[in-house]
């Protein structure tokens, strides 16, 4: 039986994709509603690549949802057109997904589409259910189907006008290196509260003024000539000495207790790892441990509108599980309690800007001297109502369990 699907595309276009990719109708009508016309055009382009050749995909003019009278006329005209098509093809079935449009718009369409006997669809991502209410059986309970995991990171981003151009985790050698030094990476993360000063200094040795690495392009760095030799502000004590010894044994820096305040960073791999790569790798390892299936680390994200591409947005970890997006960034602050809070708040606001328009769970992994500050970053995040979860220092050891809980329940623990 031929199937025609009508989707009202709202500010969450990825939700409109779910019933289409699961039910795979032969004909699709996309109508922008509470979203610009480009949102429907993007979905049409994406669907032409995802669905079988011969699938008919139409984009219609934007729905005037702020004018109820015109909206009703729009819905009536569409329903009349589909009703006439059913004369030529009596077996044509119609479904309608009103997405997240206003209640009034949904009611106007529901009323109009009775003319062509359209079944009503509702997507509940949190419940993992796709409901179908038959038009010809209004008194019966809806059919309930489990939502299939049809979205991955790339589909999710493309639906929202972004594109992942590359990710470190695409490279097999990077994944292999992560596995080879996972014990070291977990050691640093699990002791981040006691190693915060050292890890902040090492980060500054790489990225600070005169640091070991210099940028060639926004996404490429090289060793700075003559900058491999760096100095710690003070001779380290335990457990920093153990961490330096482990990093030296892994070949990521050169350090000796005979000259305990001197550190040499003479490789790109070491510079990347000490400059924050260890926290990116920890996020990836934690995602693997939590059983997340679709994970991208250090993903470079391009804005397809071209409006915000002065510097690439780089997410330390992107994951989609049960059609929900997880957006993780990390922060290793400069030494000092005031500096860490200032940097933390700046990064929190930056994350909201980087992920604007994405219905994601946002998480900031933060390593710094937050315990010594007057207010913890988690406290400030709550006071300012910022929609970013914060995992600080000593809580980093719990990241695999936090991710596993998010995977299972669809919400960050504590909500």
Order of helices and strands: EHEHEHEHEEEHEHHHEEEHEHEEEHEHEH
Which spans have pLDDT < 50 for at least 5 consecutive residues? Answer: none
**Total number of domains:** 2
Shape: elongated
- Distance N to C terminus: 44 Å
Q: What do we call the CATH topology of the largest domain? A: Trna Endonuclease, Chain: A, domain 1
Report the biggest beta sheet as strand number plus sense, adding barrel if it closes.
7 strands, mixed
CATH architecture of the largest domain: 3-Layer(aba) Sandwich
Please identify the structural class as seen in this structure. Answer: alpha/beta
Cα-based radius of gyration, to the nearest Å:
26 Å
Oligomeric status: single chain
Summed up, the helix count is: 13
**What is the average of the pLDDT values?**
89
What is the name of the CATH class of the largest domain? Answer: Alpha Beta
Instruction: Kindly state the percentage of residues in helix.
Output: 40-55%
Widest beta sheet: strand line-up: 3-2-1-4-5-6-7
| % residues in beta strands | 15-25%
Give the number of DSSP strands.
Answer: 17
